[in-house]
Amino acid sequence: MPGKLKVKIVAGRHLPVMDRASDLTDAFVEVKFGNTTFKTDVYPKSLNPQWNSEWFKFEVDDEDLQDEPLQITVLDHDTYSANDAIGKVYIDIDPLLYSEAATVISGWFPIYDTIHGIRGEINVVVKVDLFNDLNRFRQSSCGVKFFCTTSIPKCYRAVIIHGFVEELVVNEDPEYQWIDRIRTPRASNEARQRLISLMSGELQRKIGLKVLEMRGNAVVGYLQCFDLEGESGLVVRAIGTACTLDKLSSPAAFLPACNSPSKEMKEIPFNEDPNPNTHSSGPSTPLKNQTYSFSPSKSYSRQSSSSDTDLSLTPKTAPYPQGPRIYLCPSSPSLSCGSLHLKKSCLLLSESSLPPHHSSLVSPVLRKSVSFSEELFLAASGMGSGSAGKEGGPFKALLRQQTQSALEQRGGSPHRFCRRREFPFFTLTAFPPGFLVHVGGVVSARSVKLLDRIHNPDEPETRDAWWAEIRQEIKSHAKALGCHAVVGYSESTSICEEVCILSASGTAAVLNPRFLQDGTVEGCLEQRLEENLPAGCGFCHIPYDELNMPFPAHLTYCYNCRKQKVPDVLFTTIDLPTDATVIGKGCLIQARLCRLKKKAQAEANATAISNLLPFMEYEVHTQLMNKLKLKGMNALFGLRIQITVGENMLMGLASATGVYLAALPTPGGIQIAGKTPNDGSYEQHISHMQKKINDTIAKNKELYEINPPEISEEIIGSPIPEPRQRSRLLRSQSESSDEVTELDLSHGKKDAFVLEIDDTDAMEDVHSLLTDVPPPSGFYSCNTEIMPGINNWTSEIQMFTSVRVIRLSSLNLTNHALNKNFNDLCENLLKSLYFKLRSMIPCCLCHVNFTVSLPEDELIQVTVTAVAITFDKNQALQTTKAHVEKSLQRASTDNEELLQFPLELCSDSLPSHPFPPAKEHLESASSNSGIPAAQRDRCSSWIELIKLKAQTIRRGSIKTTVTVEKTSPMGEGNFRNRSAAPCANSTVGVVKMTPLSFIPGAKITKYLGIINMFFIRETTSLREEGGVSGFLHAFIAEVFAMVRAHVAALGGNAVVSYIMKQCVFMENPNKNQAQCLINVSGDAVVFARESELEVVSTQQPAANCQPACTGGEVTT
Amino acid sequence: MTSELDIFVGNTTLIDEDVYRLWLDGYSVGDAVALRVRSGILEQTGATAAVLQSDTMDHYRTFHMLERLLHAPPKLLHQLIYQIPPSRQALLIERYYAFDEAFVREVLGKKLSKGTKKDLDDISTKTGITLKSCRRQFDNFKRVFKVVEEMRGSLVDNVQQHFLLSDRLARDYAAIVFFANNRFETGKKKLQYLSFGDFAFCAELMIQNWTLGAVGEAPTDPDSQVDDMDMDLDKEFLQDLKELKVLVADKDLLDLHKSLVCTALRGKLGVFSEMEANFKNLSRGLVNVATKLTHNKDVRDLFVDLVEKFVEPCRSDHWPLSDVRLFLNQYSASVHSLDGFRHQALWDRYMGTLRGCLLRLYHD
């Protein structure tokens, strides 16, 4: 009996009138967990009942604790007829299961009914006592922390970042069960809510198990999604990044509510805590985790798979994927499912502008070169992985191998080796300094599938196989880019009837192995360290071999360090690295696209879609590139391309934040070329357009303060011939094709990107480029966490969700009209936002997240969630200089913080499991040293790695002295913090919500657990509730309220990394009905205003505004 | 392309004060947009009319949803659905319960019933206030009335506690409730020159002095069904006022009173001769008002009587306000020197309030 759940129902307020005669209510409460139900007494004739119940105690398995939600139902007692339900509250008790989070849930929860919305509130207290569980093979994973935040949470430090974890759970959708025909809509909605709650609990538990197995203690960047597949079922899937986190011994630990180890132990008699980091000062991971590594992994996994099948929520129907799956055959995808399998892949690379003579070719050819055919890919990946060693960059390859081995061999045992090696993916978008070595470019893969009912619960692997396939593709794309890992990884689906598009995207990258594993590499490489890594440009340097570039790209020497090659444009899905040197400010860039599609059934439909996809990807990409050039910028961050499928059209929406990276070359302008040169008026028109474009570029440069330092051509130009020679040299050794070299040679120094106007379509494209209106002055927008170039955020934030649905006039829709409608929709939406938030000027919309869906034939729905943050304009001017100095100081503090881990790793983790990894590395080290020195010179990334090492070591040497210094201000900070805490509590009631991982002007002192909520709302009186707008407005407000209430009950005052993952809206105005499903998640936290934590304050915003500071450094 | 659905929901509910005012004033979305366009907001912000339309719709929707809560302001404070900073909450409530002078003058003293509600059309046409706004204001009066009607204790405190209004507004509502409860006639042509402020001032004085709660006679027996403390006039007091009749009925007493007042004011009053000539009429008028207050009808006509019997005669003789003040002070004080008059306390309670009221009512 590993756990006791205790619940007390205190009181209710603002209950609805249930008895018309007396205008009062006789309320009582049912408390249900699993199959046990308790009831309170009836509190007669009151709208504000005081039950003050006893403690209801549930004795349950911790497995159930993780899976099941606590269900509280408020009812109106009726002597003669059946009791009427007033509403329900579902409470996820997961945050109580790990010791660092909340210890009690207590507060007012809105009572929610799926038909009536919120009807009053109920005050509930929930506690959990966990008992000692000696069963090592248990199925629960209590203690694993979950974070939605896609970076290392602020009050933790990453000891090891293990890597990708994923899981999915499938079930029948209650809405489509036969019983749905005879039950009320309310019962059906509640069944759905409950099922999803159960499934996500189960999913989280299973992911937790995987993390424990990897010896991690946390999942960061946890993203859980629902696929409502209709008839064919309900899929809940999640991905995340397993990490071993260590709580920073920051002032946070001394906050009243926080854990001092002794207190913790008393409150939660849970000795066998699987999470080794409960005690902030505890020993590092591997030692404690040995328990797990002792258990033979084979038996462990068998155990988990067998019990997986035992454990079912509704035994008759529930289909389950087996816990550990082995993806041994990803190369034969057609094997995985009987259904039609169509796949078109597309690779969006950090692609350079196409050479002028190429663009003058007929378009299909051009397109082909971008949307790679599958064969090209296979070739590319083969090159990237298998024979990388002998091709050109042996040192690069070495680095790759090392990291790859780091990624793949963490488990140690051979069994694990084959299970986990698959996907070196990371859902993180921001990383500890030094983690990211190079960025290759965006990799994405899409696949069109036909959904069919999951007939056999024992065969839930279809979905798994689908995803495995996609991931495999992503992995091979990354390899083609010379990268061994994918960061900023995410997955999504778009479903219309029986067709489903699965998409995955991420950024191919080369990572620093020391974060992925213990620090064994360190020792072997020390000898090679030479000089410092160039700051702020390292990640831009190409990871791939310039002779075997998988795509035509235009390389130059890095404008920052002048030593490494960089592409002329860089696309990524991650946030801007904090150390990147940026010039000017950034801005939101969107590409929008619609394509009509014939209505079709099943396979024909799927074929049509998959034929359209590559063209859409290509056009979206071109649009992005054009807009980027128009802004005078050279890099995109946070790129997210969403392709949505509808009955008769496909929509593509790409959002990203454009910036000017100092390391990349200045983007050339856009040149317009006409097709019919003899026509005079036409020429004039062209030149007019050209002028407009040039003006726009100049205006944008001014607007975003892009004024890179002038660099004389010679400096850049001179080293270019050298690599050519080198490349020839290398070519003789390698087998790289002549074609590639030719291509490389053909790239001259290009100034302009040529847009060709050969038909009206192209003309429209150019026009649409110019129609994007810049935000009004005082407004900036981006879809990343922070806006490059702005650093002085004030504490005023406003998170919002805006939804728009438009109905297209169905008469002769053309692609062009559709595009215009869609473009107008998005632009108007943005304009509305700017207008609404005008009182916050100067302000920046951060993390602008657009979602498009096509609920019906002629309906387009766009949902935007973002946060507006005001900043202080005047202060910005004054502090720029001061910041430069500060940033330098800070850099040193940062370093010292970062260097804690490698060192500790060396000392702590080496003894714990020294066998296979150490051996591996000794081998690799020996092979390294065998490489001739002459070759070594040529290998750029090798040197970089060495530089990195050098840096670490150097930092390491100062470490001891600095830490001493560090402790004293920290101590002071604690002291102040403690005294300031009551002040922070005085503003009880306000719960901030933000999609960002931080709160400006404040420091997060504690993470209370993940919030993951799913709601359904239905109405049969749509008109009475104010029509569709009134209905959805009220519902979203209610969802916010419920999220806030849960956070407040956990003792928190904010939700960070908030995301509305789903907002499915369906209406039937004729029947006066509507239904909406919303799924939101985020991390509940406690924050304290920085003014109260003066000492710490320098650190927190520092990390956020670093790019800005460095940007300032360059411009001044 | 038509917009089917268009919403904006902030974690902190956005309140636009200007739009709120337009909404409270009862303008339709279309009118509100037109008014906003006229205010030049488009030029200031560079927005389009469509944006303005969408923004106005959105705010209207929000206000519509908040209205339910505004009907019981404490609910607005405790509800969880809309996160609104306290200062904004106060603003929402205060503005919602604010009323138009023109409107309140029309319904002051009327029964807050369905019948009156039907007349709102006429009031709307007459005052130029939209019918919607009239309805809101009327419903506010009625709602406050209903809530505090049955309550004990200070009227102002009750209003303040249950509607979280500012002190000033709570006092105004107390006056409105008091007038509605006692049905004082305020609509006669004679009374048109009086503002709501004049009446509210009188109401406050009367609540303080003439009601049951005023005397501090907290019911000794809590179970006894005492009339609402602050709402109704003290019946016993009204009954006792009959005793004042002697001041005018007894010829000697009246003459003595007159001579006392005249002696004291000789040379101090600009309108002395007029006062001397009119004394008996004025005194008779003031005392007769007191003695008639046992009848409900006469209570209702209190202000009509005061204006007819005192304000108008003085005004026709062009008494300056300072002289009115001197006269009234002396008039009430001199009674203490009347040996044969035994109801000094009663006289003070009556005249003290009446003097305040008359001074306030005495203007053009």
TrEMBL record, chain A:
<feature type="domain" description="C2">
    <location>
        <begin position="1"/>
        <end position="109"/>
    </location>
</feature>
<dbReference type="InterPro" id="IPR057815">
    <property type="entry name" value="C2CD5_C"/>
</dbReference>
<dbReference type="InterPro" id="IPR037785">
    <property type="entry name" value="C2_C2CD5"/>
</dbReference>
<dbReference type="InterPro" id="IPR000008">
    <property type="entry name" value="C2_dom"/>
</dbReference>
<dbReference type="InterPro" id="IPR056430">
    <property type="entry name" value="C2CD5_YbjQ-like_dom"/>
</dbReference>
<dbReference type="Pfam" id="PF23028">
    <property type="entry name" value="YbjQ_3"/>
</dbReference>
<dbReference type="InterPro" id="IPR038983">
    <property type="entry name" value="C2CD5"/>
</dbReference>
<feature type="compositionally biased region" description="Low complexity">
    <location>
        <begin position="290"/>
        <end position="317"/>
    </location>
</feature>
<dbReference type="Pfam" id="PF23025">
    <property type="entry name" value="YbjQ_2"/>
</dbReference>
<dbReference type="InterPro" id="IPR056431">
    <property type="entry name" value="C2CD5_YbjQ-rel_dom"/>
</dbReference>
<dbReference type="Pfam" id="PF00168">
    <property type="entry name" value="C2"/>
</dbReference>
<feature type="region of interest" description="Disordered">
    <location>
        <begin position="714"/>
        <end position="744"/>
    </location>
</feature>
<dbReference type="InterPro" id="IPR035892">
    <property type="entry name" value="C2_domain_sf"/>
</dbReference>
<feature type="compositionally biased region" description="Polar residues">
    <location>
        <begin position="274"/>
        <end position="289"/>
    </location>
</feature>
<protein>
    <submittedName>
        <fullName>C2 domain-containing protein 5 isoform X6</fullName>
    </submittedName>
</protein>
<feature type="region of interest" description="Disordered">
    <location>
        <begin position="265"/>
        <end position="317"/>
    </location>
</feature>
<dbReference type="Pfam" id="PF23128">
    <property type="entry name" value="YbjQ_4"/>
</dbReference>
UniProtKB/TrEMBL annotation, chain B:
<dbReference type="Pfam" id="PF05427">
    <property type="entry name" value="FIBP"/>
</dbReference>
<dbReference type="InterPro" id="IPR008614">
    <property type="entry name" value="FIBP"/>
</dbReference>
<protein>
    <submittedName>
        <fullName>Acidic fibroblast growth factor intracellular-binding protein isoform X1</fullName>
    </submittedName>
</protein>
